[in-house]
Amino acid sequence: MEFNVHEGTKGIMEMAVKEEHSAKKVGSGLVDVFSTPSMIGLMENTAQTSIKDSLPEGYGTVGTEISVKHMKATPIGMKVRCESNLVKVEGKKLLFEVKAYDEDGKIGEGTHKRYIVDQKKFLENIQK
């Protein structure tokens, strides 16, 4: 099956950092700053959202790999913006570049791989 997903597709998402996103709250550290797992979640969500409307009914993507650097701490209350760019499409395999910024500049960057799946078949297969 062909998919209407194209290299160069970009996504942007923004969020305000709340206490529930802190390293202390998610268990990845002891400090009340934006956690790495929360940043990664934002990166994955930005990537998958950027192409979801280009997929046929019943199809979605699953994350298969992420490699990122979290370069700077962001305090609770600050806004964070994530940008994704689909840089490579190989059939059902997708490679995104992802970057995150807070109000003071870049806080993270890396790559994220996703795979296009038929959601019903995917769920049936993991139940076996």
TrEMBL record:
SUPFAM superfamilies: Thioesterase/thiol ester dehydrase-isomerase. The lineage of its organism: Bacteria, Bacillati, Bacillota, Clostridia, Eubacteriales. Residues 17-119 form the Fluoroacetyl-CoA-specific thioesterase-like domain. It holds the Pfam family FlK. Gene3D superfamilies: Hotdog Thioesterase. It comes from the Bacteria. InterPro entries: FlK, FlK-like_dom, HotDog_dom_sf. This is Thioesterase family protein.
